[in-house]
Records
---
Amino acid sequence: MKAHDVRHLKLCPSCSSIGDEREMAFDGSDFYHGRCFEADFGLDALIALPRKQRDHLTLGDVGNETMTILIDTAEEEDALVPSPPRETPT
Ligand SMILES: [Zn+2]
């Protein structure tokens, strides 16, 4: 962690320890560790977070099981995005 990273530190209201807001879950008013967010609000709520936030959660934070679910969810979402139309040869 670099000195200027200090300004990104937030106090997690769930466990009362600090975290880096860039790797935390935001509920609209507070930043939580991913694991704390899951413990307080449930896995479904964690999955329902904006993709941008979920993508920044770390394995060390949420753990193997939850990370696997998050990755699977992201892959399913990606599969739902229609691929660009193929050029059909004339
Ligand atoms: Zn926490």
---
Amino acid sequence: MSNKNVINLDVAIIGGGNAGMTLAKNLAAQRNNLVTTVFEPKTPQQRNYCWSLWATPEQQAGLKHCERGSWHKWRLVSDEEDVLLTSKKFNYLCLSSTDYLQHSEDSLEGCIDIKRSSVDNLTGQHNFISQGQDYRAEHIFDSRPPLEAAYGLKQHFLGWEIRTKQPLPDTTVATLMDFRVDQSRGLHFIYALPFSNHNLFVESTMISRQLEDKDWYRQAISEWLCNQGIEVEELIREEIGVIPMEDVTKASSNESKIGAASGAVRLSSGYAFSAIQIQMATLAKGISKGNFVIPQTTSGFLNTMDNIFNSVLLSESRIAPRIFLHTAKALNGDQFAHFMLGSAGFFEWFKVVFSMPKVPFIKQAWRQVFKHD
Ligand SMILES: Cc1cc2nc3c(=O)[nH]c(=O)nc-3n(C[C@H](O)[C@H](O)[C@H](O)COP(=O)(O)OP(=O)(O)OC[C@H]3O[C@@H](n4cnc5c(N)ncnc54)[C@H](O)[C@@H]3O)c2cc1C
């Protein structure tokens, strides 16, 4: 039963995650007259994840309050190769999502309300119900996560933050992908971020269509730690996540979607943070001028290239580690960061495509072209 006393809003932001809170923070900074409310059922403490990105020193300075670690060297490793990249322009940052969200909530300073409740019933373009209360908003921005297709391609992972018994041998390098793990169930790698001498984040990540039991990822982490000679003193926390790697925008025609639900996730890598920051800053700027249209985050070209890349990974999972290593080897650290951020130019794309095994790519590119016809 809903309450028929309708509450009217100018702007309703549904979901106070990365996109929702970044938009709210930007709108609050404008000190505009729009009556705005964020609807988010969970506290920042209930959403404690590692959010990572490549950032320039200027961007890094703006994120200092939530930084867990920062590296200017990163590494991709397979049984055959070990590629180390160093960047002058970018650092690889890991942020605490809890700290980012808490800081964003604090910055609203009474300008924008947060309701700790979910929106479960969105009817039409303006009306919805939350906790039995009817609302009408002139503009709705909906960041509720996209539903992942049961058998769709996804990146799924389980990570541990641990305290180690012995000091870590090297805390200056972020391991983005270590493929020296079980590859029998799909493309699988370990991601490891040393926060300090005794503090490590380590994650087992799969790119496949099917989720695994939690114990499967835990086993992979334990084996990898054992192979590295790292002993666990304490398991501080565990995080799990699933990121769809297929175009989520086709599943819903709702034009009010922002963030990951609007397709802001890079399909070939799962990275979304930076694209969402740009999307929300641009949207807020537009709103200040009376333009409420949500900007696109990825170009058709980028999505097509990522789809080709993903279909090669799926069809040729045997050579998938080599494809990632070749991409890393073809580029220097700065170019690699641009590539991962989705801002690579023609020259970088040319270098990547040129370094790839040609036959699988041509085959999949051909399929993509015909699929879209
Ligand atoms: C565990 C995890 C780790 C990730 N790590 C990275 C990373 O390292 N780098 C990167 O770039 N990307 C990462 N991603 C991708 C990630 O999707 C984005 O970075 C980012 O969080 C997406 O922002 P968003 O606002 O679109 O979604 P979210 O941040 O997921 O926000 C959606 C919000 O909607 C709320 N919500 C859900 N249902 C309702 C409802 N019915 N009513 C109201 N609110 C609702 C949720 O509680 C949530 O807070 C990660 C994703 C996950 C799940």
